[in-house]
Amino acid sequence: MKLSTDRILTTHVGSLPRPDDLVELLGKEDRGEPVDQVALQARAAAAVKQAVSDQVAAGIDVVCDGEMAKMSYHVYAKHRLTGLGNVEGSGVPGRKMPRDIQDFPEMMEERLGGGGPELLQATVCTGPVAYADHAPLDRDIANLKAATAAAKPVDIFMNSASPGCLSNYVPNTYYPSRDAYREELIEAMRPEYTAIHEAGFVLQLDCPDLAGSRHTDHQDMSEKEFIADAEKSIEALNAATADIPPEAMRMHICWLNYAGPHTHDIPVARLIGLLSKARPQALLFEGANPRHEHEWEDWKAAKIPDHKVLVPGVIDSTSNFVEHPILVAQRICKFADIVGRERVLAGADCGFGTYAGRKGVFPSVVTAKFQALAEGARIATQRLWK
Question: Best exposed site among 35, 124, 297, 375 by fewest CB in 10 Å?
C-alpha cells in the first residue's frame, strides 16, 4: 500500500451512498425477488465509475468502488458462498437492542443514523460454507479496474468481510458452535481475499465485530470473554490471509455506525494490544466522533508495533456537520506525533453507505466532508513537512 512518504494521503472506510435506482435493484436481489441482472450489473458498473471519479475529484487519494454492488458490507456474501441464505424477517436475527439504547428507551423506535439493519433481508448460515460463485467478485474487480484506469487515483483498496464479521452478523444455525462456523469461514473466504490481492488492490478486512459487538451481540459476555472471542477472530483473519503480505492489507474496526449515545462502547485502550496481533499493516478506526476522539491519548500511551500504519477517522460518518479543515489537520497531526507522519493516512470513522438506502449522511454532504478531509490533509502536510 502507498504510505504518506511526502504528504498526508487521504482515504475512507469503503461504503458510499448508492443511487436510488441502484438501491431498488439491490433491494430486490437481497430479498430474493426477480431482478433484471443485466440492468443491475450495468447500473452497478456505472455507479462504480461515478463513485471513483467523485472520490478523486474530492481529493481522496486511496479510493474504492464504494461497495456499489453490495447491499451491505456483510450479507453480500450470500451471493458468493454456499450455506448462507435468507430467512423471514429483516436485520440480524437474534440481535439484542444495543446496550446504550436500552439506557435511553425513548430512542428505541427511532431509525438511528438514518436506518440500517432493518433495510436488509435477514440472512443466516443454514449449511456448509464454501466459496461457490466467483462471478460477483470478478465483476467487482473488473468494474473497479475500469473506473480507476480512467480516474487514476494514488492507490486502490477493496472491502471484504472478515471471518469474524460473518460469524457475528450472519448468525450460525448449522454448525455445532460459533467456533466451528468461524473456522470454516477461514477457507470459505480465503479465495476472495486472494483474488482481491492478486488483482493489485489493497485488501481491506472489515471487522466491526471486534469492537461494536461488545455492546450488541455479546453484551452478556464478560469483558474477558469478549476479548478471548475477539482473539479467535483475529486468529481466523490471520489464518485466512496467511499468504498475503501484511503491507498489502488494512483492517477496519468500529463501534457500529449509528447516531446513538454509545455509552457502552468498549474503550480502544482494551483493544490496541489485540489489534496489534492482526497481520494487516494498517488499522482504520474511529477518531472523529464525540465518543472516541479523545482516544488519541490511548494510542499515544500504547506500544504500537513499528510496522503498523494508523488510519484514524478524522471525519465523522454519522453527522451532517462538515468538519472544518483546520480541525481535520489538528486530528491528523496528533496521530503523526505518535507514530510519525509517514505512518498516518487520513480516513473516516466508518462508511457513509453501510446499508444501501441509508440516508444518515446525505450524498452531497459526504462530498463536502471529503473535500474538507482533503483540505485538512493539505494543511497537515504543510505543518508536518514545513
Answer: 297
Residue with cell 479523545: 294
Q: What separation in angstroms does the CA of 153 have from each of 8, 69, 157, 287, 300?
A: 14, 20, 11, 25, 31
Handedness of CA 64, 65, 66, 70 (dihedral sign): negative
Please state which architecture CATH assigns to domain 20-385.
Alpha-Beta Barrel (3.20)
Tell me the average pLDDT of the chain.
95
Dist CA 59 CA 61 (whole Å): 6
Choose among 267, 283, 261: nearest CA to 345: 283
Q: What percent of the chain has pLDDT over 90?
A: 90
Please answer whether residues 386 and 333 qualify as being in contact, where contact means their C-beta atoms are separated by less than 8 angstroms.
no
CA-based nearest residue to 44, from 143, 122, 125:
143
For the chain, what are the domain ranges? 20-385
Which grid coordinates are listed for 280?
494487516
Which pLDDT score is estimated for 107?
Answer: 82
Residue 118 gets which letter from DSSP? G
